[in-house]
Structure formats: C-alpha cells, structure tokens
What we know:
By secondary structure, this protein is mainly alpha-helical. Helix content is 79%, strand content 0%. Helix 1 (3-63) packs across helix 2 and helix 1 crosses helix 3. It starts with a helix and ends in a 15-residue tail after the last helix.
Amino acid sequence: MPSNDARILLHTIVPTAVVGAVATVVSGVVAGGKGAIGAVVGTLLVILFMGVGQVVLQRTAKSLPHLFQAMGLMLYTAQLLVLFIFLALLKDTTLFDFKAFAFTLLATTVVWVAAQARAYMKAKIAYIDPGNTGSKS
C-alpha cells in the first residue's frame, strides 16, 4: 500500500478507535459489561467494514480511475446498507446491549466519514500524472 494511502487509512482509523474507546467506557458505565461489549462490537464492525471499503476504493482508484467516483458512492451506500442489516439482525440479541451497540455504530461511522474527508482534504495527492505527456507516439 503506498504511503499516502496508508496515511489516509491511519488518519481515519485512529479517531474512530478513540471514539470507540470512549463509547466503550461510557457504555460500560451506563449499561454495564454488556454495554461495553456492545460498544466494542460496534467499533470493530465499523473499522472492519469501512477499512475494507477504503482498501477496495484505493485499489479501484489505481486500476480504474474513471470509475473512482461512482465506485465510492456505491461503496458507501453498500457499507451503510450492510451496517443497517447488522442492526436489524442483532436487534433482539442478548449477547450485548443493543442500544450501546447501535449508538456506537452510529458515532463511529460518522467519525470515520468525517476523518476520511479531512484526511483526503489534507493529503497532497497529485491528480495529474506527470509521466503522461499526452502524446501518442
């Protein structure tokens, strides 16, 4: 993974993990052990899905740059749908506190998207290929 991509991924994972840790502590205090477990599961789920999506998006940008924007929109839509499916499937679970899970899932998703947008705005990514002269030899 190129250093720029790794930096962007790092700048999105760290704030998400911090918010997940805070949510775990708050959920543990409010809802006990099951609340903490729900917050940890929610945080890990967001980091896993959004992280995999970020890697897929970066590879798409390298191999099919003309599909980057459409792929990004489709990927975010699919990620949100999958997270909603997890919410629907786990709403009656007794393994952990569902409210802690749901609020942590929401908070970490919002933080991930905001941190990713900030990381892309701060990154100095060349959008012109300096090696391409445009001539057809």
